[in-house]
Amino acid sequence: MASYVQDVVTDGRRSSGPRDLYEKLKWLTFFRLVVTTVLLGGTIALQLAEAASFLTRPLLALYGLTAAIFFLSAVYAWLLKYGPGHRFQAYLQIVIDTGIVSAIIFITGGFSSIFSFLYLVVVIYAALLLFRVWSLLIALLCGLQYGVLILLEYLAMVRPVIVDPLSLASNTEGPQLVYKVLMTWMACVMVALLGSLLAEQARRSRRELDAMEAHVKRVEKLAAVGEMAAGLAHEIKNPLASLSGSIQLLQEDMAADSTHRKLMAIVLRETDRLSALLNDFLLFARPPAKEPEPIDLEKVVAETVALFEKDTDCTRLVAIKAHLSSGVWVEMNPAHLRQVLWNLLGNAVEAMDGDGTVAVSMDLAPKGQVRLHIRDTGCGIPSEKLRLIFDPFYTTKARGTGLGLSIVHSILSAYGYRLDVNSQVGSGATFTINLNRIAPPRSASGRPDMT
């Protein structure tokens, strides 16, 4: 069955959902606590080995910084449970962490501190949690803080707590200072770019995996239902046909003004409606086997859209816009593809109250695939209903069987294709058909056969 992804945006840059972000922030709080405890604990142990007193100025500074980090970790844990949105907390924690790293560098030697690499750690998890633009801003903030810290030390306006007097920035040549600050800043920016790129790829892969998992689960669920329902539908269809034929014979022997004749006309009408419903259900349960053949996707889609536009009951005040690419071939039975498109276009039109726009477009995807999108500007689908819209007989329409999307899925699944849907309330819905692209067929002359 078609998959649904609630957190997808068109540019693929949205970070993880609320629950996932909560888990990441929880692990970040724990990781920060462990790492800073180990680093500062090691520094304290080293200072104790060099100084006899526990109350020297460097140790007091380290005690204070360690206590501040533990206090902040407790505050973060409380905010995770009772505070505002997790996105705001991610921004807050990461910005504060840049300040903590600057404090660690200042206490442990400033220009000569070995802990400047911690800026890169902050930038890495900023790229994992936030958008690319935010990770770059965090990288620039780290470089700015480090540059200001080194500048103040060079001008002798501040003096690091733990430092060898010979290693002060004020005793170092200016070009060397500028070089180190620039290298630190460039390293932060490069890590932000690389980290955000890898994070975005991971998010896309996860969305694809979720889509495939949902697809497989729905296929397994409906396969068993379809097998049972197909047999039942056949058993109902046969006596229904006999009943309809008998009523027609009886109707011919009755007077033209007979009340019974009118009642039999009602019976025949409802019998035909029930027969149409059974045909749809059989199409969902067991799509008719038809040999797939190479088809020009642009040609079939354009023909279907043109035919659909002539149906005034479907189009009403809705405008249909097609943006198609030429030279794209797929393997499928044309009749099945037209039926899939007709059902999806019909649903898109019915989703709009009054005027609106339906956009049909296609784009080439990796791994030899092509995606066909049907977008509408309707009311959208609430998230709680997304997982139900492909179930048989589920419908929100006053007159509908709830089999249209189920038939679409069943037909596409028979070819190994997939249907995805993305929707937000008030912003319409987008149905995406994922097809396998093939090479254009060639005629006997060796040229592509465009017939």
Low-confidence stretches: 1-16, 444-451
Q: How many β-strand runs?
A: 8
Measured as a percent range, the helix fraction is 55-70%
Structural Rg:
33 Å
Average per-residue pLDDT, rounded, comes to 75
List the helices and strands and how they pair.
Blueprint: E1 3-4, H1 18-50, H2 57-82, H3 86-107, H4 118-129, H5 132-154, H6 174-252, H7 259-285, E2 293-296, H8 297-309, H9 312-315, E3 318-323, E4 329-332, H10 334-350, E5 356-365, E6 369-376, H11 383-386, H12 404-414, E7 418-423, E8 429-438
Parallel strand pairs: 1-7, 3-5
Antiparallel strand pairs: 2-4, 4-8, 5-6, 6-8, 7-8
Report on the architecture of this protein.
By secondary structure, this protein is of the alpha+beta class. It has twelve helices and eight strands. Strand 7 (418-423) and strand 8 (429-438) form a beta hairpin. The model is unreliable at 1-16 and 444-451 (pLDDT under 50).
Short key terms for the protein model shown above:
451 residues, alpha+beta, eight-stranded mixed sheet, 60% helix, disordered N terminus, disordered C terminus
How would you concisely characterize the structure shown here?
The protein is α+β, with helices and mostly antiparallel strands. It has helices spanning 18-50, 57-82, 86-107, 118-129, 132-154, 174-252, 259-285, 297-309, 312-315, 334-350, 383-386, 404-414, and strands at 3-4, 293-296, 318-323, 329-332, 356-365, 369-376, 418-423, 429-438.
